[in-house]
């Protein structure tokens, strides 16, 4: 299956579109309110490979970031993609926004959308039993993300989260 991946900036005419077998990204920087920003958008396969493709795309979008942030983002994205496949309809789409505020640090927004669900969104993440093999995805997202939301509907579902990595002070105290 071929995936459609786009990396773009906010200015018109700055869209990179490429049909490839694996998600890819080109590092591009923009000045959006004083912050550098890069966005990666990719179609995910509607099937068991959705989580794998999503993890690979996040690794590309967050190349060069701190290992802890990358691992959290990969796990969250895997859970969101799995939920979209298990509960939604095609198409599945992943969007990763990487922003570096002028104050430093890094903000990452991850969004997975699908074609909708006939099931209403839970009011809070369900608690699974110890022996359950599934049902912990939103609990994991809630534990790792700085902010998140889930909106479901018959014509589309949107799962979104934000990860914030604060700027580290480079001055050492004596």
From TrEMBL:
Q: What GO molecular functions are on record for this protein?
A: ATP binding
Keywords of the record, alphabetical order, are: ATP-binding, Kinase, Nucleotide-binding, Serine/threonine-protein kinase, Transferase
Q: Could you tell me which residues belong to the region Disordered?
A: 1-33
Q: Which residue range or ranges hold the Histidine kinase/HSP90-like ATPase domain?
A: 51-159
Asked if the Swiss-Prot or TrEMBL record annotates the protein with the keyword Cell inner membrane, the reply is no
Record InterPro entries: Anti-sigma-factor_SerPK (IPR050267), HATPase_C_sf (IPR036890), HATPase_dom (IPR003594)
Record keyword Transferase present:
yes
Taxonomically, the superkingdom here is Bacteria
Q: Which PANTHER family match?
A: ANTI-SIGMA-F FACTOR RSBW, ANTI-SIGMA-F FACTOR RSBW-RELATED
Query: Which protein are we looking at?
Result: ATP-binding protein
Specify the species: Streptomyces zhihengii
Q: What is the lineage of its organism?
A: Bacteria, Bacillati, Actinomycetota, Actinomycetes, Kitasatosporales
